[in-house]
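User: Run a structure prediction on this.
Assistant: Running it now.
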Amino acid sequence: MSDNASTVNPLAVAEARVKQLTAEVERWKARASRRPGLRRVIVESPFGADSPAEVERNRAYARAAMLDCLLRGEAPMASHLLYTQVLDDGVPAEREQGLEAGLAWGPVADATVAYLDRGISNGMRVGIARATREGRPVEYRCLEVDQ
């Protein structure tokens, strides 16, 4: 091991990275606030279920929720549809990684919208709690579609 490698302070490296990412988020927020356009919303709807058929119904419902957002003039982010294409929701570490990646969009979102027709899942509760903690408005909606 070289002398340089032994003198690296991991905490200092992590703190520098956090500072860099915080500055990047602020730049994104500044750019987004200057650019008129679609309202950015995080979509919360159930995903996981006991059977593949139920998961597919939840996917279809989430797609309908996204369409509802688009028809309202919003730009929806449904991370549970996106990240589950590359992460396994049945593996706790991958599920957590997907949840955190989705929640990272919070600072640039204008609101969180929770679609309630299929109930409130644990993942939705996490997203709603995070939005509330971060001061982001939470809206509750129903599509009233066949379940």
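The helical segments are 3-7, 10-34, 52-71, 79-82, 92-103, 122-133.
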